[in-house]
Design brief:
The protein is mainly α. About 75% of the residues lie in helices and about 0% in strands.
């Protein structure tokens, strides 16, 4: 009698629900960023830590997940990670200040970075070939569904309840998943000897280097990259990177095997994934801030607007799959990154009155482009690797995407916090000279400030104009951030020729790596 695999399916469905929870968490937070800032009294220039703290620790966890699965077993690693995700969610929800929220958010990123790759490894290990496809399809549906509803759900919760419930909802779900996984999942046995091969020095180099890099991106622009602490952070970042890379290249069992990077096609795919991380996470960070701080939208309204990108991705998925099978990967990647870049640049023409209708097509472009970017990169990177190297290579791709996301958020955050002051001064000067175009952009009557020295202007006029000018200056800064993101995406097209050494449309395409596709939708982690 054929085995029913009932226990395995119960366990894997629970793991997939945990995957859904981990992905959804980064999505639902995005729409509530302005509300979180308001509640905790957090200035705009600090808000990016909510996302980058999660991304950085997730990168580190991804690097460790394979070794931890060997040491603890798939069941106990996933159960422990899910329990920790619930516990850290409670910590986030109970945070009364911004520092506390970032501390718990960082630990939450560790847990999520362990949950996500473990699900896909379990899907391969738990089922025979004829069930494996169904398991991966289930995980793929989760990947597509979570980003589509995440922004709306996050906005609804933050508006109808409080932002704390964004994290509180994880607790009962996480505890139930933990119990089910312990009861029903049995994939492999723990290999305690794997603990002895964990390279703690490389782990420390990776952790310290990434932490200092993110701190550097936050504080250095304020010092114009000239303060002693900036030089110290640069030195520590480079030192941590050197230790990590050196140890990974020299150890027989490295923390992360960097050998696949010797292949030009794989290295190009990693570079593309880094740029994709910059574009994806940066765009999903900038848009809710613009909607919240310039347009004064509520979290629910922000969520509804941002859902467009996720729905576009869902609708375009079949077309992207067909293109990936019938066209060379290099051509599909060119289409995807060109569309994503165009979608980012289309947002660079915002005015303080830009709203849903003006944001519709740029979001559709970016959402449609995502799988056109992800599928060929996955095929190029993993299509001709032996089965034993797939897990490590996939981990490298994930690492590069998250690293790109953290760096991208740091770069655009610098622009939107440093540039408005200088932009505001330029606007005032143009208005004083009677610029009709500037007055129309800002949204004040033409000639209102013509010939006026703002320092000696009518106080009533100053009170009226100041917040309008601040919104206009912020809008231009947001536009500059979009130009940076779109420019990087289009510049990456220069790497397309390096993808031609990989499998072509005539070869057997690799199944989509849903682990890589998980972040391809609206709203930042």
């Amino acid at each position: 009698m054929a085995k029913s695999y009932r226990r395995e399916w119960i366990g894997f469905v629970a793991m997939s629900l945990g995957l859904f929870m981990a992905i959804l968490d980064i999505q639902i937070v995005a729409a509530a960023l302005p509300r979180i800032a308001q509640s905790l009294g957090t200035p705009l220039d600090e808000l990016s830590w909510v996302q980058t703290a999660y991304l950085i620790t997730e990168v580190i966890a991804i690097a460790m997940s394979g070794r931890l699965a060997r040491a603890m077993s798939t069941r106990w690693l996933f159960a422990t990670a899910t329990f920790c995700f619930s516990a850290t969610s409670l910590g986030c929800a109970l945070s009364h200040d911004f520092v506390g929220l970032i501390f718990w958010r960082s630990l939450q990123g560790y847990a999520a970075g362990t949950i996500i790759p473990t699900v896909f490894a379990a899907g391969y290990k738990m089922f025979p070939k004829h069930f494996k496809q169904r398991a991966l399809l289930l995980a793929g549906v989760v990947i597509m569904l979570a980003p589509s509803i995440g922004p709306f759900l996050g906005g609804y919760i933050a508006e109808k309840l409080t932002w704390n419930w964004l994290f509180l909802i994880n607790i009962p779900i996480g505890l139930a998943i933990t119990a089910i996984v312990i009861r029903f999942v049995s994939v492999d046995r723990a290999d305690k000897s794997a603990w002895r091969t964990v390279d703690l020095v490389a782990f420390a180099g990776l952790s310290i280097g990434l932490g200092c890099l993110q701190t550097l991106l936050k504080v250095a622009p304020q010092d114009r990259w000239s303060a002693p602490r900036d030089y110290l952070l640069i030195a520590v970042t480079l030192g941590g990177a050197y230790v990590f890379v050196r140890r990974c290249l020299r150890r027989r069992e490295p923390l992360v095997d960097l050998a696949p990077l010797r292949r030009p096609a794989f290295a190009a795919a990693c570079a593309f994934n880094f740029v994709l991380g910059v574009g994806l996470f940066s765009s999903l960070y900038v848009l809710p801030l613009f909607l919240g701080f310039v347009r004064f939208h509520s979290p629910l309204e922000i969520g509804v607007i941002m859902t467009v990108m996720g729905v576009s991705q869902l609708v375009a998925a079949p077309l992207a799959a067909v293109a990936e099978r019938r066209l060379p990967p290099a051509l599909v990647a060119f289409i995807g990154f060109a569309m994503f870049g165009a979608g980012a640049l289309a947002n660079a023409f915002q005015t303080p009155r830009t709203d849903f209708a003006d944001l519709l097509w740029p979001q559709i472009l970016r959402g449609t482009a995502l799988l056109f970017c992800i599928l060929p990169i996955t095929n190029v990177a993993l299509g001709d690797l032996p089965a034993g190297e797939l897990s490590n290579a996939s981990g490298l791709l994930n690492l590069m995407r998250n690293l790109g996301g953290a760096v991208g958020i740091g770069l655009v955050d610098t622009i939107i916090n440093i540039r408005p002051s200088a932009i505001g001064q330029s606007l005032v000067a143009a208005l004083a000279q009677g610029s009709v175009q500037t007055a129309a952009f800002v949204g004040i009557p033409a000639g209102m400030l013509q010939g006026v020295d703002i320092a000696h202007a009518d106080p009533a006029d100053v009170v009226f104009v100041k917040p309008i000018l601040e919104r206009a200056a912020a809008t231009i800064a947001f536009n500059e951030a979009w130009v940076l993101v779109g420019g990087l995406l289009l510049a990456s097209l220069l790497l397309v020729p390096f993808l031609r050494g990989s499998p072509t449309a005539s070869s057997e395409p690799l199944e989509p790596d849903f682990e890589l596709a998980r972040d391809a939708a609206p709203a930042v982690s």
